[in-house]
């Protein structure tokens, strides 16, 4: 998880080539590399894929710079960009390939398939007459049949349980949102909750929409959950901070290689300037998540709850390389309003850098705030006199220990990494008509995760060589299984609501909220 978190980046705009006049001028170093590639292409005794050599060379160069300067090969660039854009063009379904058949898990909310009535459990057998079953088609090839140009149409032949004949749906492909705000609901009559999973191009828009709705429902306080959020676009994080801080408050500043400093201030009246705010972070909260936590903490605004964050204070800019690939290159460091850099050291190499999570685990800081190592030379003071530290992440105001019980942790990992999804899908398939027609309110009270389902899951796990000793953790397993079931039926908001029941960090925020009212 810590390694995955390192993928989080703070992205600036496109590079301004007018400020880099000599960027592409000829020099001996470039000529040397070009000549070597030409020699290999034309003179080497065997045929060699020089594209792979170039890719390898680029990766090795970047590895020697810092852990967050990365190369994006052209075959990955489209999917990476799509994830950060916040939407894609397609029919809008998530699916499994079950026995060489495309089976819909869920028609995505707001997508074309949901609008025309495609449902979970439907088998998509044909797309424009092309069979999609019994073909051993890779998932990426299946996706190409379902995606396409915006407003283009695809005719689907669908098998639905309980219907004898195939159903025909003509779907006009459209923009399908990839939500970065997973959930927004009320934790109490006055405390709203918003969960952000990354900072994409649409995040601020989603956040503001969620905030408006919660305020209408009575929210005067907000819990902003940035746990496990690896980061993303800096501009989106800044706009969210601007909703919380009064005008003319410093949000952050950046410094590039020439020492040029660029400061960013809050500029407009925000919707959260008066209400209390609680920001939840953990060891996987990185990059733009840390910008928000650091800006609020250094301005004595709100309360940071959780564990020390990842520690990424570098700014990347994405630059295309001319062949469909791109590089995200570190161009600056950012600093919180008090002047601290929260970038953890990387001078001992990337491998050592990405093992930081295990060091934290082994030294006990995930369980005890007193075990967090701080450097007194990196001590800073906020305007109201609170002491904060630089040098590797944001240390929260209120510490929440990590649950390190091995069996509970194993159950949590099985849920987080999608292992439960296929099992739950199979449970839903046993009575798809019932589950597809039950309301969300009835689901809360009527649907129970029985002892039989628990035992079936334990057997399912054993078939995958995973041994589970549920014992006193049966209630946790039942809650997670029902949360995954809610996700497949109703989406992420329902999932998070069930998942957060009895969450220690949420309970602490509720306690703080009552005190501050």
Automatic annotation (TrEMBL):
PROSITE patterns per record: PDZ
Domain of life: Bacteria
InterPro entries (alphabetical): ClpP/crotonase-like_dom_sf, PDZ, PDZ_sf, Peptidase_S41A, Tail-specific_protease
Keywords assigned by UniProt, alphabetized: Hydrolase, Protease, Serine protease
A single GO BP: proteolysis
An example Gene Ontology molecular-function term: serine-type peptidase activity
GO annotations of cellular component type: outer membrane-bounded periplasmic space
PDZ domain: residues covered: 77-162
SUPFAM superfamilies cross-referenced by the UniProt entry: ClpP/crotonase, PDZ domain-like
Family per record: Belongs to the peptidase S41A family.
NCBIfam families assigned: prc (TIGR00225)
Protein name, per record: Carboxyl-terminal processing protease
Source species: Salegentibacter echinorum
């Amino acid at each position: 998880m810590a390694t995955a978190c390192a993928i989080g980046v703070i992205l600036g705009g496109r590079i301004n080539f007018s400020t880099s006049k000599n960027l592409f001028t000829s020099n001996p170093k470039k000529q040397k590399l070009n000549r070597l590639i030409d020699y290999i292409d034309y003179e080497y005794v065997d045929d060699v894929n020089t594209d792979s050599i170039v890719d390898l060379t680029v990766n090795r160069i970047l590895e020697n710079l810092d852990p967050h300067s990365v190369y994006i090969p052209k075959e990955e660039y489209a999917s990476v960009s799509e994830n950060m854009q916040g939407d894609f063009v397609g029919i809008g379904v998530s699916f499994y390939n079950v026995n060489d058949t495309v089976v819909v898990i869920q028609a995505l909310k707001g997508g074309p398939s949901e609008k025309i009535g495609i449902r979970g459990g439907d088998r998509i057998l044909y797309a424009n007459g092309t069979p999609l079953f019994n073909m051993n088609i890779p998932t990426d090839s299946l996706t190409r049949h379902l995606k396409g140009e915006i407003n283009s149409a695809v005719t689907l032949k669908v098998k639905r349980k309980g219907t004898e004949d195939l159903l025909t749906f003509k779907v006009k492909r459209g923009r399908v949102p990839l939500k970065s705000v997973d959930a927004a609901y009320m934790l109490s009559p006055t405390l709203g909750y918003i969960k952000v999973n990354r900072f994409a191009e649409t995040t601020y828009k989603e956040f503001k929409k969620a905030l408006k709705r919660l305020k209408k429902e009575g929210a005067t306080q907000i819990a902003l959950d940035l746990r496990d959020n690896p980061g993303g676009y800096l501009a989106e994080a800044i706009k969210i901070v601007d909703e919380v801080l009064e005008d003319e408050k410093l949000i952050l500043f950046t410094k590039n290689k020439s020492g040029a400093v660029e400061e960013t201030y809050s500029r407009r009246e925000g919707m959260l300037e008066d209400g209390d705010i609680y920001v939840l972070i953990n060891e996987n909260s990185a990059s733009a998540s840390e910008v928000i936590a650091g800006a609020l903490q250094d301005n004595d605004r709100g309360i940071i709850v959780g564990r020390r964050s990842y520690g990424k204070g570098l700014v990347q800019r994405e630059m295309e390389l001319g062949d469909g690939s791109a590089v995200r290159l570190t161009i600056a460091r950012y600093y919180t309003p008090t002047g601290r850099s929260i970038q953890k050291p990387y001078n001992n190499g990337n491998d050592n850098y990405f093992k930081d999570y295990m060091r934290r685990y082994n030294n006990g800081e995930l369980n005890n705030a007193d075990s967090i190592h701080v450097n007194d030379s990196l001590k800073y003071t906020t305007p109201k006199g609170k002491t904060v530290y630089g040098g590797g992440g944001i240390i929260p105001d209120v510490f929440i220990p990590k649950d390190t019980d091995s069996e509970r942790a194993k159950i949590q990992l099985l849920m987080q990494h999608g292992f439960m999804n296929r099992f739950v899908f199979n449970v839903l398939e046993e009575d798809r008509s019932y589950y597809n027609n039950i309301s969300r309110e009835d689901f809360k009270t009527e649907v129970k995760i029985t002892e039989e389902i628990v035992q079936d899951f334990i057997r399912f796990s054993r078939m995958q060589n995973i041994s589970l000793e549920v014992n006193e953790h049966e209630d946790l397993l039942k809650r997670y299984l029902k949360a995954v079931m809610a996700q497949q039926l109703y989406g992420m908001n329902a999932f998070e609501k069930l998942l957060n029941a009895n969450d220690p960090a949420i309970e602490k925020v509720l306690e703080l909220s009552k005190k501050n009212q």
